[in-house]
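Backbone-to-sequence.
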């Protein structure tokens, strides 16, 4: 079975999750002062730069993975392959369909107190908690039912409108993509309008198949109502 990384709601219906959104979120540790080394820039085909403050104080392993892959150019050109309106936008897969990752080992979970609020950035994984690799998701709305089940490692601090504009779908008909990813300390300028337009029109970069360990799909919800209400992983 191909490894498939995805965000799933662990047997909770959207109705349950919506109710959870009204509950008080987990207290959040105040972020340290933002430094250029811990600002992750995503220049999107939706028209602009998204800046994310990374939290190595909370999830050091995941932040180091993001930095390593970013400096390799791994994320450049990759699409957001699974985007659910009112929930999250998922990307970081070189295969572009949820089955891929990097050639680096999977990460151990670093569950923490950062809540899955709007703009939170978290690591996508399979059912096995230690299966995050390169894929991530950005929350479009709060979903506190994901807290302590996924490793949050940062939050958008500017450019959220460009995240909101990411093409929706599972998969989207014309997926939005990361034109360029960089770290603030590397002083990479934003792409020009022409570069953004060219990247938006280009096909996704081809990636060599990776030998990845199998990951089981989550169990289907027992109740048909829950099954109908939840976003389901692709088979």
């Amino acid at each position: 079975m191909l490894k498939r990384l995805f965000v799933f709601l662990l047997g909770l219906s959207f109705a349950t999750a919506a109710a959870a959104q009204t509950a008080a979120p987990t207290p959040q540790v105040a972020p340290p002062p933002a430094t250029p080394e811990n600002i992750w820039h995503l220049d999107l085909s939706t028209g602009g730069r998204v800046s994310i403050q990374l939290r190595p104080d909370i999830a050091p392993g995941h932040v180091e993975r993001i930095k390593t892959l970013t400096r390799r150019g791994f994320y450049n050109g990759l699409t957001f392959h699974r985007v659910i309106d009112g929930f999250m936008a998922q990307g970081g897969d070189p295969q572009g369909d949820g089955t891929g990752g990097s050639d680096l080992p999977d990460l151990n979970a670093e569950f923490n107190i950062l809540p899955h609020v709007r703009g939170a950035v978290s690591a996508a994984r399979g059912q096995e908690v230690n299966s995050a690799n390169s894929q991530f998701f950005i929350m479009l709305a709060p979903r506190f039912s994901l807290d302590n089940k996924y490793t949050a490692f940062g939050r958008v601090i500017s450019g959220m409108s460009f995240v909101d504009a990411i093409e929706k779908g599972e998969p989207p008909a014309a997926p939005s993509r990361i034109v360029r990813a960089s770290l603030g300390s590397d002083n990479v300028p934003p792409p020009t309008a022409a570069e953004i337009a060219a990247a938006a029109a280009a096909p996704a970069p081809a990636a060599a198949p990776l030998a990845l360990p199998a990951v089981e799909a989550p169990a289907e919800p027992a109740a048909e109502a829950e099954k109908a209400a939840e976003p389901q992983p692709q088979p």
